[in-house]
Amino acid sequence: MIGKSAKEPMVAVCTPFNKEAPSCGNGSTIAFPQESKAAVDAMHAKALSLGATDDGAPGQRIEDVFYGAYAKDLDGNKLAFYIFG
């Protein structure tokens, strides 16, 4: 990841999680920082209620470091909602 801090926009380059070929909705993610784990859960639920598909239920991804949830919007773009901690 490249950025000034965890509270500012960053760019991350990595291999797609599902190991398939990169594309607009696979290997690229639009990420939205949240203020709490409850807010991550709520944003994920809201995205699903608006027609997004689940691409990773809310949960602790890296112990004490990263909590996140993932969804794909109606156009297939991958969205992340997260909090560091």
**How would you sum up the major sheet?**
4 strands, mixed
Can you count the helices?
A: 1
Structural class: alpha+beta
Mean pLDDT reading: 88
Taking strands numbered 1, 2, ... along the chain, how are they ordered across the largest sheet?
3-6-5-4
Order of helices and strands: EEEHEEE
Shape: globular
Tally of strands: 6
In percent terms, what proportion of residues is strand? 35-45%
| Low-pLDDT segments, ≥5 res | none
> Roughly how much helix do the residues carry, as a percent range?
10-25%
Radius of gyration: 13 Å
Separation, N- and C-terminal Cα atoms:
16 Å
In brief:
The chain is of the alpha+beta class and 85 residues long.
Explain what you see.
The strands form two sheets. A four-stranded mixed beta sheet has the order 3-6-5-4, covered by helices on one side. A two-stranded antiparallel ribbon has the order 1-2. β4 and β5 form a beta hairpin. The protein is built from one helix and six strands. It is an alpha+beta fold.
Please specify the SSE layout and strand pairing.
Blueprint lengths: L1 E2 L6 E2 L17 E5 L3 H13 L3 E10 L3 E7 L5 E7 L1
Parallel strand pairs: 3-6
Antiparallel strand pairs: 1-2, 4-5, 5-6
Could you list some keywords that capture this structure?
single chain; 85 residues; alpha+beta; 4-stranded mixed β-sheet; two-stranded antiparallel sheet; 1 helix; 6 strands; 15% helix; globular
